[in-house]
Amino acid sequence: MVLAALVRPAGADAQIVTVANERINTDSVRREFDKGPYFGLYKDNYFIFGPTIGQKITRENTNAKFQVSIAQKLTKSTLPWNTYLYLFYTQKVFWNVLEESLPMTDLNFNPGIGIAKPLFVKNRYIGKLTFQIEHESNGRDSIQSRSWNRITFGANIIVDANLSVHGKVWIPIIDGQNNKDILDYCGIYQVGTSYLSNSKRWAASLVLVKRRGFNLNYNTIFELGWKLSNNSNQYLFLQYYNGYGEGLLDYNKFHSQLRVGICIKPVLFSDY
């Protein structure tokens, strides 16, 4: 059975509609990109809460984490090489909701601008390539200031209806005075894979971020989601983070954290 894909962009992502025993012309798919919405989700949007793993659980190490991530298409039609220009923005927050005054201990701001190129093979949409210029900082000053810039190259490839793989590599431009060693903790590239069940209700992903060095030192992110209904993109969500660089303020401190909550996912795949 041949599966052909028709796509409608949602920010940097796209919705895929599979049609059995029919091939859809690539030009038609590209027209759907041109006509698609200008604003949508980029990475996962979630609110999760949970404790540290391997230590005594306290109010200080049990916290909430939430992320808001969006993309805006800036061009009405295709650019050279069949690309599209996007503005990206992701904000990640760590919130100690069990402590007095409920302090938000770390806010990470990650704007970016770049191009996305949809990929087609034999008239099938199989994923996309991205090129971005990104900035990330925590908006603080003095000794708590953290910031860096990256030129990133990424790819998301749909292997089949259940499996996709992704990767991202970057050229760092480190301007923060207090995080010169950030590559030792936040890494130099990342790879991952995502799985979607046949029922489209269960989703799982694994991301490995390679820290600088020649040994096998990776930050690991495992996620599991269960869709609340077939007609929504809201998931009950579990995330396990193990390693360094989860947040910018304490990027050089080891964290092993398990959190659960609610996640709103882009329709097809998330960017990491």
What can you tell me about this protein's structure?
With 272 residues, this protein is mainly beta. It has helices spanning 26-35, 183-186; strands at 3-10, 13-20, 39-41, 45-50, 63-73, 84-95, 104-121, 124-137, 147-158, 163-173, 189-196, 202-210, 218-227, 234-243, 255-264. The strands form 2 sheets. It has a 12-stranded antiparallel beta barrel with strand order 4-5-6-7-8-9-10-11-12-13-14-15. The chain starts with a strand and ends in an 8-residue tail after the last strand.
Strand percentage lies at over 45%
User: Count the strands?
Assistant: 15
**Biggest β-sheet, characterized?**
12 strands, antiparallel, barrel
Strand order of the largest sheet: 4-5-6-7-8-9-10-11-12-13-14-15
SSE sequence, one letter per element: EEHEEEEEEEEHEEEEE
**Helix content range:** under 10%
Mean pLDDT: 88
Shape: globular
Which regions contain 5 or more consecutive residues with pLDDT less than 50? 1-24
Radius of gyration: 19 Å
Number of helices: 2
- What is the CA-CA span between the terminal residues? 31 Å
Structural category is mainly beta
Q: Could you write a compact summary of the structure shown?
A:
This protein has 2 helices and 15 strands. A 12-stranded antiparallel beta barrel has the order 4-5-6-7-8-9-10-11-12-13-14-15. A two-stranded antiparallel sheet has the order 1-2.
